[in-house]
Amino acid sequence: MTGETTEPPQLPFNRPTLLDPAPAFAELRRRAPLVRVRTPAGDLAWLVTGYEQARALFGDPRLGRSHPDAAAAPALSDAAIMGGPSGNYDTEHADHARMRRLLRPAFSAKRMRALDDRVADLVAQCLDEVAAARSRAPHRPVDLHAHLSFPLPALVISELLGVPVTDREYFRDLSDRASRMGSGGDAATAIAEFHAYLGRLTAAKRARPAQDVLSDLVRAQADDPSFTDDELAAMAAGLLFAGHETTVNRIDLGVLLLLANPARRDGFIADPAGQVTGVVEEILRMAAPADLGVLRYARTDIEIGGALVRQGEAVLLVPSAANRDPSMFTDPDAFDESRAPNNHLAFGHGAHFCIGASLARTELRTVFTALFSRFPTLRLAIDVHDLPVRTDQLTGGISELPVTWMP
């Protein structure tokens, strides 16, 4: 691969619909598990399309989020989150270990169980809004994205972090702005606003701590003076982004995957308790709102899949491509709620396995069970090809999800 003379393919790749992967991934996978591409920012990167290689690299300490020369590092985009390098190159592994240690209690099984009922309450509130929107305009489609998919994850992650109810709309808007590409600098402004906001909120938590993640982190600062306010803000920003944007897309695309096949939808409605776990895992495997991947940098030279990745070069791990690898998944383009095992990489793998995976699964199981129990005749109100795609967002997805149902 190091002798390539043709211009590397340009991300993002064209795809038939939001429910179908870009054909280019399969074509590139047949060529090699790692190939050179150009990012939306115009920089060169290694794209990982093979499952085996992606799984190994997710847990490989020779890759990291930081770069020894951040100003010169290849970029994915100009988004303020996950668009380029982050963290301190010299202390990244130690900082990551500390972050996991600090956040482990917040995402413990006990804390998640305590949050279950609250998630169900928040889902019910959003579904009440869906029903109310239909009552206000009985003959018009209802935007499920606006009333459920977009607000719910922000409500849940705000509940966990300890964000006041009155601030949650602002909090949600910051997440949306920070992950926007081509914003003319507004994404960076959003991050600066977010850090300033968190400074005020953590000061309030010091004065009146509660049972929430921000209060836990403030208490941790008392035991570890080296844990700075900037680090706390960066940690909270990462939690907000991971807990909001990715879950929004999984709700939207999960609904589309179920509605795309009436028999699949009806089978789920007939036995939600028996099917919901398998349905959610298959949604996690197949839902691919954006195909830009997870950005990492080689901390040393790495040889993998026949390619030599040099120190400092960018590597894009693309779970949506790895999750369609036929060497791992039989009939990978088919939705199979009974697929077992289903060892997808939607939450990464190894040391960087998403710490909020159990929360995301709880949200998705609760959402799909409640949504289709309350609106069993739910259907898409427009053709899937006509859905408005968010091309300016790092995480992709759609900006509207018009649905209707029999009264």
UniProtKB/TrEMBL annotation:
Its cofactor is heme. Pfam families: p450. The keyword Oxidoreductase applies. Keywords: Heme, Iron, Metal-binding, Monooxygenase, Oxidoreductase. SUPFAM superfamilies: Cytochrome P450. The keyword Oxidoreductase applies. InterPro entries: Cyt_P450, Cyt_P450_B, Cyt_P450_CS, Cyt_P450_sf. Belongs to the cytochrome P450 family. PANTHER family: CYTOCHROME P450 BJ-1, P450, PUTATIVE (EUROFUNG)-RELATED. This is Cytochrome P450. It comes from Amycolatopsis pigmentata.
